[in-house]
Design goal:
7-stranded mixed sheet; 7 strands; alpha/beta; 16 helices; Trna Endonuclease, Chain: A, domain 1; 55% helix
Amino acid sequence: MKEIIESTEYKNWIKNLKSKIHAARTKVALAVTSQILELYWDIGKDITERQSNSNWGSKLIEQVAVELKDEFPDMKGFSKRNIYAMRQWYKFYSEKYPFVPQSVAQIPWGHNRLIISKVKNIDEAEFYSNETIKNNWDRDTLEIQITNKLFLKKGSSTTNFPQTLPENQANLAVQSLKDPYNFDFLGLHDDALEKAIEDELVKNITRFLLELGKGFAFVGRQYKIEVSESDYYIDLLFYHLDLRSYIVIELKAGRFKPEYTGKLNFYLSAVDSQIKKPEDNQTIGILLCRKKDKIEAEYALRDINKPMGISEYRLTDAIPDNIKTKLPSIEELETKLTDGIEKTRR
């Protein structure tokens, strides 16, 4: 028995068997989720139509909740609040669809409730449903992505991908980039230097990978390459599992300058020559800058034949001017703090 358990053939076989079981469990879970959501859709539809076509009054949902909980005491989900959400969910998507949208039917009800509570546009809601399926997001991660406005950032980076990559890979590469990236989890101020930003990104690599998105695998920082007996160091090197490409990220603490693309082009050539394997696709470069002028960035990329993208990043969330004027200044805060300490001593 010991020989069987330790054999490579057995290990591969049992691993494959476990994978089949996991896949089957996932299918069952998805089927159950889909059936529940179809039921919720029907309930939301029936209530919406009854409220429109009858004089049963505003207490209908409250009465339905009582009736259903009495009839199905072992089933969760028939509270007044949840039935109200079913109606809201149905009304939201029924403007475009006669039945539950496919992507929407594949994510848990809690995710669906979160999306319709924070998103007002059906296309945007479907985007977050699809991203949840693709990335296997839990509800907390989904909320972070909605709060960070992933829908507006995705695919908005300035790139030359359509001109330098095959169409399928170019589309995937474009969708893999954001603009801007949100690095407020680093706790740094806008005047932070490149080294400090890089240090904190590596310390917070899990949050950094989450912000980059699905598919990025961290290879190293200040990654050393040798060219003609000289040493050079790439700020951050990743590998993208879906693109099957190395990703070189250069980090700049200030405004984008056209000459930055020359250095990044040099690094891409070096990685393609020294690190990339025959089965890997072309190496891609990303410049992350505090600010960029879109036209200037487009000019800088126009005649470069290696794939590059240029995005901004944020270290702190911008505060709207109408709120900013209502916030106390540092001097006011210090005065209030001093007054408070003095009162405490009396």
